[in-house]
Design a protein that fits this description.
Layout: H1 2-20, E1 40-46, E2 58-66, E3 73-82, E4 88-92, E5 107-116, E6 126-131, E7 136-137, E8 143-147, E9 149-150
Parallel strand pairs: 1-8
Antiparallel strand pairs: 1-4, 2-3, 2-5, 5-6, 5-7, 6-9
C-alpha cells in the first residue's frame, strides 16, 4: 500500500515538472533581450564575395556621430575583434567612446571594417567594409551590418 502511494506521489511530481517545462513556461523560457538606452547592439555578417583568407584579420565596428560644431560625421567609438568568427555579435557602450566629452546618444551611423595587414609580402592583405545606410538610434533595436565590398584606397 505504501509503495502504491509513493508511486502516485512520484507520478504527480513528474507531471508537475513536465508541465512546468513545456514551451512558454518556466524551464525553456529565455529572458527577453533588454535594450540598453545608452548602447548600440547588433551583429556583423560577411558577404560571400569577401575572400575567406580575410577571416584572419581584425574586425572593427565604428560609430560615427555629428558633433555640435562639426557638419560631418566623425568616428567616436569602436569595438575590435581579432580573428572574428562570423556572425559577430557586438555591443557598443559609453566605455567604447574614444573622445572625451562625447556622450553616446541620439542618431549615429554605423560601419564595419575587416582588415588584414600582416606587413609581409608573402601573406595576402586586404580591407573590406560595410555600412548601414542611413542613421540608427542609440538604444534602438539591434542592427545588422554586412561587410560586402573592398575598401577604396583613396
Amino acid at each position: 500500500m505504501t509503495r502504491v502511494r509513493n508511486r502516485g506521489r512520484l507520478e504527480i511530481l513528474l507531471l508537475v515538472l513536465f508541465l512546468f517545462c513545456l514551451p512558454d513556461t518556466g524551464c525553456s523560457r529565455s529572458p527577453s533581450p533588454s535594450i540598453d538606452p545608452k548602447s548600440i547592439a547588433g551583429k556583423v555578417e560577411i558577404s560571400p564575395s569577401v575572400p575567406l583568407w580575410m577571416l584572419h584579420g581584425t574586425l572593427t565596428v565604428i560609430v560615427y556621430m555629428k558633433g555640435s560644431t562639426s557638419p560631418s560625421y566623425l568616428p567616436v567609438a569602436i569595438s575590435q575583434f581579432l580573428h572574428p568568427v562570423f556572425p559577430v555579435h557586438f555591443k557598443i557602450t559609453q566605455d567604447d567612446v574614444r573622445l572625451s566629452g562625447i556622450d553616446l546618444k541620439g542618431k549615429v551611423k554605423l560601419g564595419a571594417r575587416l582588415l588584414l595587414d600582416s606587413g609581409s609580402d608573402l601573406v595576402s592583405r586586404g580591407e573590406y567594409v560595410g555600412m548601414i545606410p542611413g542613421e540608427v538610434s542609440v538604444g534602438g533595436a539591434p542592427v545588422t551590418i554586412t561587410i560586402d565590398h573592398a575598401a577604396s584606397n583613396e
